[in-house]
What we know:
Blueprint: H1 2-22, H2 24-31, H3 40-55, H4 61-67, H5 76-84, H6 89-92, H7 101-105, H8 107-110, H9 113-118, H10 132-144, H11 149-158, H12 165-179, H13 184-226, H14 229-281
Helix pairs in contact: 1-14, 10-14, 12-13
The structure holds 2-acetamido-2-deoxy-beta-D-glucopyranose (NAG) (10 copies).
Residues 268, 271-272, 275 line the site of one 2-acetamido-2-deoxy-beta-D-glucopyranose.
Amino acid sequence: AVGFVFIFSSFLMLLTTIVFILGTPMHRFVCEPITDPDLTDFQTILDTYIYQSMYGGTGSLLGKLLLQNSSHSFSLKKILSDCEGGKSAYSAFELSSMIDISALTNYSGTLDVNSQLDNINVDLSTLEILTPDLTAQLTDLKSSSDINFTEFREQLAQVSVDMNLTSLASELRDFAANISSVSSSDSTNFYAHANTTDSINDNELADFIKAMATLESKIDALEAAVNGTSDTVDNTLVAFNDTQTYLQNNGSQTVKDEAKNYANRLLKVVDSMVNDTLDAHT
Length: 282
Ligand SMILES: *[C@@H]1O[C@H](CO)[C@@H](O)[C@H](O)[C@H]1NC(C)=O
Ligand SMILES: *[C@@H]1O[C@H](CO)[C@@H](O)[C@H](O)[C@H]1NC(C)=O
Ligand SMILES: *[C@@H]1O[C@H](CO)[C@@H](O)[C@H](O)[C@H]1NC(C)=O
Ligand SMILES: *[C@@H]1O[C@H](CO)[C@@H](O)[C@H](O)[C@H]1NC(C)=O
Ligand SMILES: *[C@@H]1O[C@H](CO)[C@@H](O)[C@H](O)[C@H]1NC(C)=O
Ligand SMILES: *[C@@H]1O[C@H](CO)[C@@H](O)[C@H](O)[C@H]1NC(C)=O
Ligand SMILES: *[C@@H]1O[C@H](CO)[C@@H](O)[C@H](O)[C@H]1NC(C)=O
Ligand SMILES: *[C@@H]1O[C@H](CO)[C@@H](O)[C@H](O)[C@H]1NC(C)=O
Ligand SMILES: *[C@@H]1O[C@H](CO)[C@@H](O)[C@H](O)[C@H]1NC(C)=O
Ligand SMILES: *[C@@H]1O[C@H](CO)[C@@H](O)[C@H](O)[C@H]1NC(C)=O
């Protein structure tokens, strides 16, 4: 079947090339320059003097050049009027002697594309999209998104900061004042502890409380982000499985149908080029 595709495509290439050459371009480059109406003298020059100098004797120079037949005379006047009448170079120069166009138009009689394509056999019955590995990865993704946010928030709520460091610092200062008469060095130390306590309250504890608030809002965002992931993974698994089932059971026929569609579209292009070229010949 692969060989067929190659043969088939080179055939199409050849066909479209020939059809293209016979059509407009030749008309443009061969017919258009010859628009001087009076060419009988020119014909005489061609068929006597030039023929004489090239081949000896007399004969039709164009017949000799185009058809290798010096008896086949081409009338320049007829070619000219044909060209002016809009005929293509193919008919004006009577090239039918050189190229059998009816064989081209009948190419579909010798080329049965559909039955060739029917022989293509693509076996997709063992195709596996949903491999065990892919299934495991999708299942892992699903379980990692199954976070119990209720439980998470409950744990977080238990981390409470219910000590009042401001009142602790004030008690430490009272105590430092009480013992200043007994031991002034201990008193100074307790004033320093009170200052440290204030500092912890203003800096570390404040940062911690801010971080807790940030964490709570991040959890909200995370919950919103993973919301639905589990369902999405389930849908993906089902879609992959459906695709796999379809390709395993109907894949071969689908490939064949699509190949036929493609071939028919190509052939339509060729048909219409052949048609257009032939129309220009009549
Ligand atoms: C050459 O052309 C003449 C006139 O058209 C024709 O009768 C003859 O059969 C041709 N010869 C060949 C070999 O084609
Ligand atoms: C077209 O080709 C087929 C198959 O080769 C043949 O039977 C048929 O006669 C041909 N038709 C023409 C008009 O040449
Ligand atoms: C989430 O955790 C809460 C509290 O621990 C529990 O009551 C609830 O059943 C859990 N939900 C799920 C879906 O496991
Ligand atoms: C800590 O105690 C002081 C008084 O001792 C009070 O003014 C302050 O509001 C308390 N702070 C907190 C967070 O309870
Ligand atoms: C300081 O001394 C006063 C009077 O003796 C007493 O009432 C108070 O409880 C003491 N404060 C501390 C923190 O020891
Ligand atoms: C405690 O802080 C106050 C005010 O910042 C300061 O005047 C005092 O010297 C500090 N005491 C100690 C022992 O660091
Ligand atoms: C998750 O999405 C559903 C539907 O989109 C919505 O009804 C639900 O409130 C969302 N839950 C959370 C926690 O965002
Ligand atoms: C895939 O689909 C087939 C048939 O529809 C079913 O028997 C099979 O259990 C499905 N497998 C999974 C993993 O969903
Ligand atoms: C697959 O092909 C069978 C017959 O071969 C047909 O009945 C079925 O509808 C097709 N399934 C799809 C999804 O096209
Ligand atoms: C070719 O021309 C014939 C007659 O003019 C027409 O019936 C046919 O549809 C044309 N085919 C294409 C592919 O244009």
